[in-house]
Design brief:
- The chain contains 7 helices and 13 strands.
- By secondary structure, the protein is an alpha+beta fold.
- Strand 3 and strand 4 form a beta hairpin.
- The radius of gyration is 22 Å and the shape is elongated.
Length: 233
């Protein structure tokens, strides 16, 4: 990898900014002062420092976000706020993107990463990754509807969903687990049984559970244990 690309990826500015930093002799590679920004380095073997501080190389970033309502699960939008607006500049450098989508008015767990392979594994219909939500409904569910969800629900467009786990947790509040992610799926499933979702929040995705310490709009990097569990699925 070229040194200027490495430094840009690690948040040290544009290629132009990096050139200026190198010109000021602030960068060393294996304790040798570097004068050219276009030299090639091995980030996994070479020790790169800026102003004497080691720059830790990261190829991928994995962020757990407690998504608030009113934010689109997208990387950019001309008119509306996106979840990337909640991410600090230094964490945007590696260009994370949301893994799957939560509707604009849906809250809860959202994973952002630049690891395309992991995103594919979590979103692939063949993998049947569980996604659990809590929902506030217009009315209480019945035993018949619990059984209906367990068999799959016929949506208005004729699509039969995969089986879902549905259980009541308190007055008009339910927990629902699905293994797919069709457009507005949970809302459409309840509409199919003449009910309406008034509030929706995702609690988990596969082995990853929303950190209760994260306030709305806050995020953190995944722990090694969380990443290992996700990657082993």
């Amino acid at each position: 990898m070229r040194l200027d690309k490495f430094l840009a990826n690690m948040g040290y500015g544009s290629r132009k900014d990096v050139k200026a930093i190198v010109k000021k002799k602030r960068i060393t590679v294996n304790n040798q002062i570097i004068r050219k920004a276009d030299i090639h380095i091995d980030p996994s073997q070479d020790q790169i420092k800026c102003d004497g501080k080691i720059i830790e190389y990261k190829e991928y970033i994995y962020l757990m976000l407690h998504k608030p309502a009113e934010y689109l699960s997208a990387t950019e939008d001309q008119k509306q706020k996106t979840v990337l607006d909640l991410i600090k500049k230094q964490d945007k450098v590696l260009e994370p993107f949301p893994v799957g989508r939560l509707d604009k008015d849906t809250e809860g767990l959202l994973l952002l990463t630049n690891d395309g392979q992991l995103a594919h594994e979590l979103l692939s219909p063949k993998k049947h990754v569980d996604k659990t939500y809590i929902a506030k409904l217009a009315r209480d569910i019945t035993e018949q509807e619990i059984n209906q969800f367990a068999e799959g629900v016929l949506l208005e467009d004729g699509y039969l969903t995969k089986p879902a786990k549905l259980r009541a947790i308190e007055d008009k509040m339910v927990e629902i687990t699905i293994t797919e992610g069709k457009f507005h799926q949970i809302k459409r499933m309840f509409e199919a049984v003449n009910n309406n979702v008034l509030y929706l929040k995702r609690l988990s995705m596969g082995s990853l559970y929303l950190d209760e310490k994260l306030k709305m709009g806050e995020y953190r990097e995944l722990t090694k244990e969380e990443l290992d569990q996700l990657s082993s699925k």
